[in-house]
Write a structure and sequence with these properties.
single chain, 1010 residues, mainly beta, 7-stranded antiparallel β-sheet, elongated
């Protein structure tokens, strides 16, 4: 039996970490929670050893009269009363039962009951602690504990309320049984605390505050670092039942905060002339920016005559001009059959159910800086008058949604913050929307109008919508021409956040042919955390790849700028961290236009050629990554898995150097060329250090030598890196090489600016450049340039002038421009003695290199030329360009095993080499290039064929045959009579074929690579 009395309550304060749990202390009978004796009638004075049978909080049941249950003092945790349970006999027990605790449990919420215990005699003293449901006396949770040995310890019981528990009360039962372990004697008990822990939020970083219970005046959750204030006018009380349980605020999916496990209650309502006016102020108390997404809520109208005018106003703060954001008069039937979802976003129009006209005014600024505030007013009222619309409208699952973002972050996907959902929903197959087929290829979700993943997709939510352009297919014609294509979360734990894209044949078995996939995954600018302001662009991209399971797998970054997609030359081919500053130097980005059909790759027939010089993205529309891979017959799948992607924004960088600049040094670090062109291998060794570099007295003429390039020889970079003097000559050895396959590096020359610092004695005046070895054919090591400048050249001097009686002295640093070109003598602006030896070869193939030595030294001796000479704006100038078949074939995005000269990946009957020789497209069956043609005039039979003008390694010739069955093909019977020079990619060669002795002949063109 247990007693239900009206008792005095105490609130036990519970500390809750934002994003970890919500709820708090539950009102608990004071005599139960602290064992203080409470007598509401004030008829009994509490004393030590007062029998528990006199308590209004407990009833006592004895197995034997020898034991006792009483209040004691002097040893409690807080110095006040505690309970002693003493079962003296070997088989005695004492059971005490509390009154009902006066709570109403919430289905899905977690509850924790704790109690302190202690024993002072030797031996284990056990007691049983149980929680019962009051409505039917059913045990909810039970455990046996051993009291603390000579010290107070805390024991806890924890449970999750189930459906039968919803709305029910609980009571406690404590039993001391001497039969347990054969131990008699007493146990001391103190301090019972009951906590409602709620549940962890699935997206706490985006939920700023919510109200889902029946307390209209209190948002029960407010995120850390968010200041929140609510003021209500004329709002009716909420109710503990009848609320929305659709697992979302509006459509913002959060099953634990707004789901069936949340209170089935509603906090706000309006009725007739009792309008609801809610004034909400939110403050950013963090050290980051706070981006406000919007106000989300569920609404239900009890009838067609319920109030139906709903408005949201921005009333003031730090977001700009106040005014109306949303205004809608619902149609009479909207929301009358149950709760409907409102997503009132602030940057672009969100979701307003029904067909009523919506007035929306976007907020131009939605970001709160540190300490800034924004105030909004939500109004639910009649659209006409209370007599016409007397019935109620109910609001539930009310939440403010937003993001804390570090300044400059546009996309910040990091597991496990992105994806959440039921562990059983791990596989999501693509549907048939926006799909095209081309033979055995399947391009899916081409230029989608809806994201792959959005706020709610099959039980998942993510912060930012992900879009994708995807293609799958086989690389051979088999019965299985369309492998399954899916994306999913790894294993059965979607909260880990790993995103997996996979192509695999049906049944996950080998289908007798290799398979492929291409995917362009991206985030659109309207889904960025923060907007790109004028003068800003993407400055870096970073991602973490968990797995690349494919042949020839490659992942590149992608940026969409002014309607054009670009992908990075830099790529990842193995798992791990992958990052790239953006933009990078020229030839680092290639333009990509996704192909809707007719391609073995997710790109146009022209493929990707990385020739976007100095790309600077100033109108970014999307960022993401581009991945391609193929899987062999035995591997039966191609997949990519990643768990993070970050995009940062910042000011637009300065323009890149002229494409002819191969490497330069213009700052005050002598050991490091701060720029080396992509595809160039460069190393520098300081043999003799000379004098220290300086951050002042550099050349400010905006050129490297006289090679004008203010972006690299910036007039604001008043530094110089190299200097030599007297007995401290400067000697630097530089190796420059071609690191780009299928290209030629042509070295034009070595350029620099020179200045001599003459004060008390003459500066050093001998300068030499030597070729000391490498792969330049026919070039022996030795001096290329040498000059001994005259003593008065390029030396500092001073100019004095007098203005209105004031003498002004100006220091002049006369830098001279040296352009030491290699094939022919360049500019050496000196009247002194000069030596030049032309280099017969200045070209480096892939893998080749050339090493040069520069020396600054005295022309006579150190004592005579003791002062410094200084060099700045030092650069190698030249050209790096792709050449030959290899460079051409790499531009079409073909798999590596389809790039050989004899391959025919598009199946048009021409090999790759033949298509190259005719300037065709090996990736398009309909583009075989320029065909040969026949001319017959004046009895002369001419066969005219195309011939590439940019590759002298190709050999074109004809073969003739007069019988295709028994004859032989021979390189005879014709004469080359001329070539039409076009100055374009193809010239045209005319071949006169003799017809004197043949009735018929067959002709074919042979294209070979020497």
């Amino acid at each position: 039996m247990h007693i239900r009395n009206k008792m005095k309550f105490v609130i036990v304060a519970i500390g809750v970490a934002a994003g970890q749990a919500w709820g708090g202390g539950i009102a608990l009978n004071e005599a139960v929670s602290s064992f203080e004796y409470t007598d509401l009638a004030n008829t009994i004075v509490p004393t030590s050893q007062l029998a528990l049978t006199n308590s209004e909080a407990w009833t006592v049941d004895f197995q034997s009269p020898t034991g006792f249950a009483r209040f004691d003092t002097g040893d409690g945790t807080d110095g006040n009363f505690y309970i002693t349970l003493n079962a003296k006999g070997a088989s005695d027990y004492i059971k005490i039962t509390s009154v009902d605790l006066g709570i109403s449990m919430v289905e899905g919420s977690t509850y924790k009951v704790s109690i302190d215990s202690k024993e002072t005699l030797t031996g284990d003293k056990d007691y049983q602690f149980e929680v019962y449901r009051a409505s039917d006396d059913a045990v909810i949770v039970s455990n046996t504990f051993i009291a603390g040995a000579a010290a107070w310890v805390t024991d806890t019981l924890e449970f999750i309320a189930t459906a039968p528990d919803a709305g029910q009360d609980i009571y406690l039962v404590i039993t001391r049984d001497s039969a347990l372990n054969g131990n008699a004697k007493s146990v001391k008990l103190d301090n019972i605390i009951l906590e409602e822990l709620g549940a962890a939020f699935s997206d706490s970083l985006r939920v700023l505050a919510f109200n889902v219970d029946d307390n209209k005046a209190d948002f029960e959750y407010v995120a850390s670092n968010v200041g929140f204030d609510l003021s209500l006018t004329a709002s009716l009380d909420g109710a503990s039942s009848g609320g929305s349980t659709d697992e979302s605020y509006g459509t913002f999916y959060d099953p634990t905060g707004a789901g069936a496990g949340a209170p089935a209650a509603y906090p706000w309502r309006a009725q007739g002339d009792s309008a609801l006016v809610a004034d909400i102020t939110i403050t950013n108390n963090s050290s980051d920016l706070l981006k406000l997404d919007g106000l989300y809520f569920d609404l239900s109208r009890l009838s067609a005559t319920s109030v139906r005018q709903i408005e949201l106003d921005y009333t003031g703060g730090n977001l700009g001009t106040s005014g109306n954001v949303y205004s809608v008069t619902l149609d009479s039937g909207d929301g009358t059959t149950g709760f409907v979802n409102f997503d009132w976003t602030l940057g672009s129009e969100g979701k307003t159910p029904g067909v009523a006209a919506v007035t929306f005014n976007a907020l131009s600024d939605r970001t709160l800086g540190v300490g800034e505030t924004a105030s909004f007013r939500l109004t639910v009222d009649t659209s006409t008058d209370a007599a016409t619309e007397p019935d109620q409208a109910l609001l539930d699952n009310i939440a403010l949604i937003g993001d804390f973002i570090t300044d400059g972050i546009l996309v910040d996907w990091k597991s496990p913050d992105m994806f959440f959902g039921a562990a059983t929903t791990t596989l999501l197959k693509l549907g048939a929307n926006n799909a095209v087929t081309n033979g055995d290829l399947y391009i899916q979700n081409y230029n989608p109008t809806s994201p792959l993943f959005d706020r709610k997709r099959e039980g998942y939510y993510q912060k930012q919508d992900i879009y994708g352009i995807m293609q799958t297919g086989n690389q051979g014609a088999t019965a299985e021409v369309r492998p399954f294509r899916y994306y999913k979360f790894t294993e059965a734990t979607p909260s880990e956040g790993n995103f997996l894209l996979t192509v695999t044949p049906a049944g996950d078995v080998t289908n007798g042919t290799s398979i492929l996939q291409s995917s362009l995954i991206h985030y659109n600018a309207e889904d960025f955390y923060d907007s790109l302001e004028v003068g800003e662009t993407i400055t870096s991209l970073e991602m973490n790849l968990i797995e690349l399971d494919a042949d020839d797998a490659a992942v590149r970054f992608a940026v969409k700028n002014d309607g054009q997609w670009y992908v990075s030359f830099t790529k990842a081919t193995t798992a791990g961290s992958f990052s790239l500053p953006v933009p990078t130097a020229e030839a680092a980005w290639g333009a990509l236009t996704p192909s809707s059909s007719g391609s073995a790759s997710l790109m146009t027939a022209d493929g990707i050629v990385y020739d976007t010089s100095g790309a600077s993205f100033t109108n970014v529309e999307a960022v993401g990554f581009f991945m391609e891979g193929s899987g062999g017959v035995a591997e039966n799948k191609v997949r990519f898995k990643y768990d993070s992607f970050t995009a940062l924004a910042g000011p637009v960088p300065t323009d890149f150097p002229d494409p002819s600049v191969l490497a330069y040094n213009v700052d005050d670090v002598r050991e490091d060329f701060e720029y080396v062109k992509s595809g160039i291998d460069f190393s520098l060794t300081i043999v003799s250090a000379g004098n220290s570099p300086s951050s002042t007295q550099g050349s400010l003429d905006g050129s490297l030598g006289s090679f004008f390039d203010p972006n690299s020889a910036d007039t604001n970079s008043a530094a110089r890196p190299w200097a030599g003097r007297g007995s401290a000559p400067f000697v630097a050895e530089m190796t420059i090489g071609n690191g780009k396959p299928d290209s030629i590096l042509d070295l034009s020359g070595f350029h620099f600016d020179l200045y001599r610092h003459q004060v008390a004695s003459i500066s050093v005046r001998r300068y030499e450049l030597e070729y000391i070895g490498g792969d330049l054919s026919g070039v022996s090591s030795g001096l290329v340039y040498g000059v001994t400048v005259n003593s008065d050249e390029f030396a500092r001097y001073f100019v004095t002038n007098i203005v209105e009686g004031v003498t002004n002295v100006t220091e002049i640093t006369p830098y001279g421009d040296f352009d030491w070109t290699f094939a022919a003598e360049g500019t050496t602006p000196s009247a002194g003695t000069k030596t030049f030896n032309a280099m017969a070869d200045t070209s480096l193939d892939f893998g080749e290199s050339a090493t040069f030595r520069l020396t600054i030294k005295s022309s006579t001796d150190a004592a005579t030329e003791a002062n410094q000479a200084r060099l700045d704006n030092i650069a190698f100038i030249g050209t790096l360009q792709g050449v030959g078949f290899g460079n051409w074939i790499n531009g079409f995005g073909l798999a590596l095993d389809d790039r050989d000269p004899d391959d025919d990946p598009d199946g048009d009957g021409l090999t790759n080499l033949e298509e190259y020789g005719r300037d065709g497209n090996p990736n398009d069956i309909n583009d075989t290039g320029t065909a040969s043609f026949i001319e017959v005039a004046g009895g002369v039979f001419n066969y005219v064929h195309p011939q590439r003008t940019d590759d002298d390694t190709l050999n074109y010739y004809l073969e003739l045959n007069d019988d295709l069955v028994f004859g032989e093909w021979t390189n005879t019977g014709y004469v080359v009579t001329g070539t039409n020079i076009t100055a374009a990619t193809l010239d045209y060669v005319t071949n006169e074929v003799s017809t004197a002795s043949k009735d018929e002949q067959f002709i074919r063109l042979i294209i070979e690579q020497l």
